[in-house]
Write a structure and sequence with these properties.
The protein has 418 residues and is an alpha/beta fold. It contains 22 helices and twelve strands. The protein has two domains: 108 residues, no CATH class; 208 residues, Rossmann fold (3-Layer(aba) Sandwich), CATH 3.40.50. Helix 1 crosses helix 5.
């Protein structure tokens, strides 16, 4: 496969834009493709894949390329990350490109300092080494350097995993059951399924396997009153509603109306009738106070650094600093304390993040339990075992891409005793 000049130009322009790191990468690329509406689907996929590859490997690529020139950075991505040969690139090389690429390929064989080789900021690399040890941090960093697979979740109100797998395989897709989540399907190769009929009619939803396991820890029953406290676009809300068989009452709270609005079309195609989206001004909103001690199950999928999702959102590691972790931890503690007021005696509160930092996970839960003696932490392993899921990560759920193949997640079950 050869690269065309317009593809290289598009990738160069996209790299220049995402490298500013002033806006989330997905937002940048959405705007970029809107501005370049004539670009075909295949070229868009080429540009998106290259731009994300650059963000995943930004630090080592910048060091080896020794230039901020987007054209040369694009060439370095194509050669080192996407596996294009000099012969395949020959038609689009200009001026000194061939000489520069040969020199780049020679430098790429050099050893790099650990944090640069890991493609992480110094502070985050040092933090991970302190928590997990250098060997584990290295394995984790390597996982973050690779693209994530495409995970789907079956909507059990509309189909079964067996039917979905058969249909996807009949289309020639490399589809397999996820090893842990009972409703999950993993597609190899990341094909574009945006307009796939099974996604359009709600039989399937895009959802990482780890995210699916969070819903199983909540374990809502049909007649329960449930609150998804930080619902966002509603991925976990839809799973909770399905687990409730569209019975009971499920509130989807969020402070961002725009974010919650993304749930509306997903909800319409899901077949659920028990979900009630509500925008709240803050965690102590009157809508929250009205439900004090009335809720059976509460999920707090807390806002976090998102460092467990760096395969999918690699710009997050470049756009955040230690101060952001501290600020988020304070917010997480406030949200968890507010959500706890909803839980009735005997009820369950699940605190979850897509972070791998103890400051956002264990530290928040430990401080909460110390300050709220009516809550006790329960064993996540035992809850997952009820769903016939064999994974042992200790009393709290801890998922890592290099160990479990899904995004990094943390979750703790907290039950109110009285």
């Amino acid at each position: 496969m050869t690269v065309r000049a317009n593809q290289l130009a598009g990738l160069s322009a996209a790299i220049e834009r995402v490298s500013r790191l002033d806006v989330p990468a997905d937002t940048v690329l959405t705007a970029f493709f809107r501005e370049n509406a004539a670009m075909g689907q295949r070229d868009r996929a080429f540009v998106a894949e290259g731009a994300y590859a650059y963000l995943r490997r930004k630090r080592s690529l910048d060091a080896l390329a020794a230039t901020a020139d987007p054209h040369k950075l694009a060439l370095s991505v194509l050669v080192r990350e996407l596996g294009f040969s000099m012969r395949e690139l020959q038609p689009v090389l200009v001026k000194d490109d061939a000489v520069w690429l040969a020199d780049f390929k020679f430098r790429a064989r050099s050893a790099l300092p650990p944090a640069i080789a890991a493609d992480l900021p110094d502070w985050l690399w040092e933090w991970l080494c302190a928590v997990y040890g250098e060997a584990e941090a290295t394995a984790l960093a390597r996982a973050f350097q690779t693209p994530a697979p495409l995970d789907l979740r079956v909507n059990p109100l509309k189909t079964t995993r067996e039917k979905a797998l058969a249909a996807l395989r009949d289309e020639g897709l490399d589809a397999n059951a996820t090893p842990l989540a009972p409703l999950g399907i993993r597609i190899a190769g990341r094909p574009s399924l945006v307009k796939h009929p099974w996604l359009a009619d709600g039989r399937l939803e895009v959802q990482d396997e780890g995210s699916q396991l969070i819903g199983l820890l909540v374990a809502p029953r049909r007649s329960d009153m449930v609150v998804d406290f930080c619902a966002g676009a509603g991925g976990k809300t839809l799973l909770l509603g399905a687990l409730m068989h569209s019975q009971g009452r499920l509130y989807a709270f969020d402070v961002k109306a725009k974010r919650l609005a993304k749930l509306t079309p997903r909800l319409a195609r899901s077949g659920l009738s028990n979900v009630h989206p509500q925008v709240i001004a803050h965690e102590r909103d009157v809508k929250v106070k009205r439900l004090a001690e009335k809720i059976d199950r509460v999920l707090v999928d807390a806002p976090c650094t998102g460092f467990g999702t760096l395969r999918r959102n690699p710009d997050l590691k470049w756009r955040q600093a230690p101060a952001d972790v501290a600020e988020l931890a304070a917010k997480q503690a406030r949200i968890l304390a507010a959500a706890a007021t909803l839980v009735k005696p005997g009820g369950r509160l699940v605190y979850a993040t897509c972070s791998i930092l103890p400051d956002e996970n264990d530290a928040i839960v430990d401080a909460f339990v110390a300050a709220h003696p009516t809550f006790v932490q329960k064993d996540a392993n035992a809850e997952l075992a009820k769903a016939k899921i064999e994974v042992d990560t200790g009393p709290s759920l801890r998922l890592f891409p290099h160990r479990h193949g899904c995004d990094g997640f943390f979750a703790a079950i907290l039950e109110r005793t009285k």
